[in-house]
Amino acid sequence: MNIGRSDIVWNYLATFFKIASSALLLPVILNKMPAETVGIWTVFISITAFSYLLDFGFNPSFARNVTYVFSGVKKLQSNGFESNLSENEISYPLLKGLIIAMRWFYARLAVICLILLSILGTFYIFTLLKKYNGSHSEVYISWAILCAITSYNLYTLYYDSLLEGRGMIKRLKQINVIGQICYLVCAAILIWMNFGLIAIVSAQLLSVLIIRFFSYRSFYDAEITKKLQACKGSPQKDILNSIFPNAVKMGLTSLGGFMVTKSSLIIGSFYLTLNDIASYGITIQLVSVVSGLGSIYILTFIPKIVDSRVKNNIDFISLIYKRGIIFLLFTYFACGFMIIVAGPYILEILNSKTHLMLSSLIALLLFSSLLETNVSMAGAILVTKNSVPFFRASLLSGLAIVVGLLLYFIFFEKNVLGMILIPFIVTLVYQGWKWPYEVLKDLKIIKKNKNG
Questions:
Q1: CA-based nearest residue to 77, from 318, 444, 427, 385
Q2: Please, are residues 31 and 352 in contact by the beta-carbon 8 Å criterion?
Q3: Cα 49 to Cα 27: distance, rounded to the nearest angstrom
Q4: Which residue stretches of the chain have pLDDT < 50?
Q5: How far is CA 62 from each of CA 12, 59, 359, rounded to the nearest angstrom?
Q6: Spatial separation of the C-alpha atoms in residues 292 and 380, rounded to whole Å
Q7: In 66, 150, 248, 370, which residue has its Cα 20 to 30 A from 345's Cα atom?
Q8: 157-206 pLDDT tens trace
Q9: What are the backbone angles phi and psi of residue 87, rounded to the nearest 5°?
Q10: What pLDDT score was predicted for residue 87?
Q11: Residue 88 exposure: Cα atoms within 13 Å on the Cβ side
């Protein structure tokens, strides 16, 4: 499990292109599209993000268990892990059974996703279009393509688990960079040719097909293919039963996380104008880039951290966590400063029809995002123990944010301040300090108290 600086660099590039792809297209989008269309596009992004909740925590759970297999584990467990450090050979029957289980799971998940998007998603888009002055047919065609892309991407999501679990971080990120560059080039050309929303979703289709093709070719090399063909897979039912408990907990955590980060935009779209939503959406996309870049260091080393858990190498995990926190703080300070100071001037130069929020609101949003990203990083460390202690807190926080947002819009002013303030306050009350503190205790960075 060799992960080093080159993996970090490629992960940095891949995450930048993946999260910043929308931001990198902004010069063309803001110049060629009216603010209302930008608002629809922002809603598209949030709805497709919701589709990944259907995964319900299985993707990171699958990836973690793939790492256990490549680290020498002979049997998967619902809690903790079984290892035989004197015999680190890979159990190919266990690996094959795990792959079969992943295919079975994601095939059914993709069908459910397509049905939900086609029915509930289309109804939501229909509701939004009542106050949209642009071409309705363009939006519906784009939405149909997006439904198909999202379902296919979900069906093949297990390729990411295989590559990440095997420790092929560099290869996975190189593939993602290629796919995102193709997306950016194709989308920019088509948008400039006035294809609007259809340009964006068509470019996404091309990107997904490229990424999945190279992912398949990378994992199934000659050795892996030969050994998997020569063995019989472990029982699929046993594997799913081992993964299911923690995967469900991670799914509840993801649901809570979605409500923390995305419910503001979904709920706000019912109360605010599309112009306000466009301004908030563009700003939150830039802040999301900062969040993604800030957590890269730790996320790159997750397979190695899992491997270190199996081998009880806590000192290495502690070192990576400390470096990751420093990287996170530096990224937020540097990139956040650039957004606040240079962002408005850049949009003015681009003659943008959509503007960023006020500097004070951007600063509050950055601080709230920093808090949430720090919690997410702490959770990523804790879950490598194959336990999920934070799923209840995450779900309750998400519910509290949804209720808080609804109450704010009903009884107070209908503005973007509430969309930022409510998630920030709820996170700060408990999760913002609880899980980072638990990581510090777990890694022995601070001493546990007598009751801990």
A1: 385
A2: yes
A3: 23
A4: 85-86, 452
A5: 23, 5, 41
A6: 14
A7: 370
A8: 999 989 988 878 788 888 988 998 898 889 889 888 888 889 888 998 99
A9: -140, 90
A10: 55
A11: 8
